[in-house]
């Protein structure tokens, strides 16, 4: 059985158990060369099964015995729990009885205490009244003998007595007790002065506990407010020695805030009174000195000081918000700030607009003076309006051209100065304007910016630039309007940035937003009309310059040479000069504009350039070699057109190049060329007009092939 028990290992696996049993049986395996003996193994298995059955019976008997024992112990434990529950119920009943008894005794004690108090309180009041009568008699006799009045160390007790006597004396008739009332009042006043003096001395010595005692006694006296005033006055002694009164005030309030709670029973009231005193005395005096000095003589310095002082005052107010000043400290501090600045804020925007107007006018005048330029009047109404309408409809230059000597009359320095002044005005407006007036005031500042920057500077420069554009038939004309366009474009970006960064936050939630956006839209559209007009006239001048070059450089013999066999040039001199001129103008346009405007203007120039070359080629007759030279010229023009980087322009010159092939193609191939991809969609009259330019057009053979 011991051997059988050894075969049980944890965890138990039946297959492994059989393997271990077979391995232990002699002849059960091939161990040590020993042959396998199935009979012996079977015999061993039968014996082992019998052993397992015996073991199972023993274990079963043991389990039954343990179950019986467990049931017996469970019954005993349940019986014991029932006994404990009964004992607990008995104890709980005893506790309830004890609690009721204690409550009964406590009720009796409270009732007895109330009875004792009812007897003792009148007795104490009678004793106190007797003492007050005794002290009152001393005032009647005119001689104060009690130690409480003669001993200076008992000033606290004397103050309590005299305060009560003073209240009693108020109820007495004046005709009978006038003398004693005056004596009590005199003593009341003397004690009050002594207490305040004692408080002052304790504050100078830094004795917080003594200050607290005296303040507690004075709390019931009329002079308590005077005690607070003395405290506030002494707190400020030596506190404002530096130049920064705002920082000094913050440090003082921080120090007092830590101390006032240890001294007074109402610290928030005392601290609020200190702050009120600082604002109404120190700060108001300081602000007045700083502002009145420049109010009428120097508007710029006045506005800077006003903004700085108001900002520093509001920052100080934000720091003071950390302290306990009562229920509505925000309103309290706002009223203090308003009391200091109300006289300056009422007319702030008028001063701001007046300064901005004079400053902007000075900046512009200083610029024109530096250019030795007398600003001419653009004029309005009547004839000027009529001229403007005619010019917008016909694009004709009305009046004599003005030579600006290459000056655009636009200055980024002037623009930056104007925008900087306006930016500072917006910042001051945001800080100093009442919230209800902020959008209206911001709009007025924006209107000033539009007047001086857009109308007086940019619009004047555009008008001057338009007047400086020469007529399209002028020779060697200098075209400076593109420089005006370039600078105006840069200025527009700066103007738009300030509009979004500084004006929009001030008006974003008000009806003034739509008004500002409309004003901005109108002024930009007005200037865009003049820019478009100037660009259009500039392009006409460019085409005019090209016409002069072609007229001066192109000869009739270029395309009909006398000696057909002795042509050495690849393209004509006129072509070289026109292409050089065009490339310069393309580069200038790219440098003067940005975005889609570049492509729009280059497309317009390219179309006009193509029309010019097309009409120019129609003026000549072409021999075979002249036609080849014309093709070379157009090829060079087409190469120049690639610099435009506009698909339409390049397509136009590709078609023109294909048309020029009609000048040299053999008569037999004309119809084939005309039906090619590039010429198939063209009007037959256009094709015919180019064929007619051939010197051999009148030959019967050519006419027959093209008919």
From TrEMBL:
Protein's GO biological process: exocytosis; Golgi to plasma membrane transport
Q: Which domain of life does the protein's organism represent?
A: Eukaryota
Sorted keywords for this record are: Coiled coil, Exocytosis, Transport
Identify the InterPro entries for this entry.
Sec10-like (IPR009976), Sec10_HB (IPR048627), Sec10_N (IPR048625)
Q: Where along the sequence do coiled-coil regions lie?
A: 49-87
Q: Name one GO cellular component term.
A: exocyst
Q: Which intervals hold domain Exocyst complex component Sec10-like alpha-helical bundle?
A: 157-706
UniProt domain Exocyst complex component Sec10 N-terminal: residue ranges: 38-146
Q: Which family does it belong to?
A: Belongs to the SEC10 family.
Q: What's the name of the protein?
A: Exocyst complex component 5
What species was this sequence derived from?
A: Aramus guarauna
Q: What is the lineage of its organism?
A: Eukaryota, Metazoa, Chordata, Craniata, Vertebrata
């Amino acid at each position: 059985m011991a051997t059988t028990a050894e075969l049980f290992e944890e965890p138990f696996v039946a297959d492994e158990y059989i393997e271990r049993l077979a391995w232990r049986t002699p002849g059960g395996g091939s161990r040590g060369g020993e042959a396998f003996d199935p009979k012996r193994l079977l015999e061993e298995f039968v014996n082992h099964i019998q052993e397992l059955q015996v073991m199972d019976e023993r274990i079963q008997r043991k389990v039954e015995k343990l179950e019986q024992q467990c049931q017996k112990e469970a019954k005993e434990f349940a019986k014991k729990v029932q006994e404990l529950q009964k004992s607990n119920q008995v104890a709980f009943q005893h506790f309830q009885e004890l609690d009721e008894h204690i409550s009964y005794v406590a009720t009796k004690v409270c009732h007895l205490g109330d009875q004792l108090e009812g007897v003792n309180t009148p007795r104490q009041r009678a004793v106190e009244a007797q003492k007050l009568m005794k002290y009152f008699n001393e005032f009647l006799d005119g001689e104060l003998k009690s130690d409480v009045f003669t001993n200076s160390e008992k000033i606290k007790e004397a103050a309590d007595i005299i305060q009560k006597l003073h209240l009693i004396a108020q109820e007495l008739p004046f005709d009978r007790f006038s003398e004693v009332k005056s004596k009590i009042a005199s003593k009341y006043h003397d004690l009050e002065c002594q207490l305040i003096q004692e408080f002052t001395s304790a504050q100078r010595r830094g004795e917080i506990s003594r200050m607290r005692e005296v303040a507690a006694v004075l709390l019931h006296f009329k002079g308590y407010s005077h005690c607070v005033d003395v405290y506030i006055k002494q707190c400020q002694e030596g506190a404002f020695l530096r130049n920064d009164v705002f920082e000094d005030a913050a440090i003082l309030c921080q120090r007092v805030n830590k101390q006032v709670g240890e001294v007074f029973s109402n610290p928030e009231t005392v601290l609020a009174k200190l702050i009120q005193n600082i604002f109404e005395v120190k700060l108001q005096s300081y602000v007045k000195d700083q502002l009145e000095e420049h109010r009428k003589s120097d508007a710029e310095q006045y506005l800077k000081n006003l903004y700085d002082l108001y900002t520093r005052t509001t920052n100080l107010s934000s720091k003071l918000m950390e302290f306990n000043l009562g229920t509505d400290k925000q309103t309290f501090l706002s009223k203090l700030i308003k009391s200091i600045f109300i006289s300056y804020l009422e007319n702030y925007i008028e001063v701001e607009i007046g300064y901005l107007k004079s400053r902007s006018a000075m900046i512009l005048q200083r610029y024109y003076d530096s250019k030795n330029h007398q600003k001419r009047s653009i004029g309005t109404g009547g004839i000027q309006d009529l001229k403007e309408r005619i010019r917008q409809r016909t694009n004709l230059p009305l009046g004599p051209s003005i030579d600006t000597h290459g000056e655009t009359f636009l200055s980024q320095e002037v623009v930056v100065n104007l925008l900087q002044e306006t930016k500072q005005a917006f910042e001051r407006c945001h800080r100093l304007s009442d919230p209800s007036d902020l959008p209206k005031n911001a709009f007025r500042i924006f209107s000033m910016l539009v007047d001086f920057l857009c109308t007086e500077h940019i619009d004047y420069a555009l008008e001057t630039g338009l007047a400086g554009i020469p007529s399209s038939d002028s020779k060697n004309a200098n075209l400076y309007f593109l420089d005006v366009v370039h600078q105006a474009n840069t200025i527009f970006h700066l103007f738009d940035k300030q509009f979004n960064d500084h004006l929009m936050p001030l008006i974003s939630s008000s009806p003034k937003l739509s008004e500002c956006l409309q004003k901005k839209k109108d002024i930009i559209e007005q200037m865009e009309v003049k820019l478009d007009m100037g660009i259009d006239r500039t392009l006409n001048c460019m085409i005019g310059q090209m016409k002069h070059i072609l007229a001066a450089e192109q000869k009739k013999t270029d395309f009909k040479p006398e000696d057909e066999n002795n042509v050495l040039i690849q393209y004509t001199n006129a072509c070289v000069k026109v292409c050089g001129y065009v490339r310069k103008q393309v580069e200038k346009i790219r440098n003067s504009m940005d975005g889609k405007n570049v492509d729009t203007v280059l497309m317009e120039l390219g179309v006009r350039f193509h029309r010019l070359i097309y009409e120019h080629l129609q003026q000549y007759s072409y021999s075979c070699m002249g036609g080849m030279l014309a093709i070379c010229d157009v090829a060079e023009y087409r190469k120049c057109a690639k610099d435009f980087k506009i698909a339409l322009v390049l397509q136009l010159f590709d078609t023109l190049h294909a048309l020029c092939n009609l000048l040299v193609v053999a008569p037999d191939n004309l119809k084939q060329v005309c039906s090619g991809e590039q010429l198939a969609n063209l009007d037959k009259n256009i094709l015919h007009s180019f064929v007619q330019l051939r010197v051999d057009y009148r030959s019967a053979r050519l006419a027959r092939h093209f008919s």
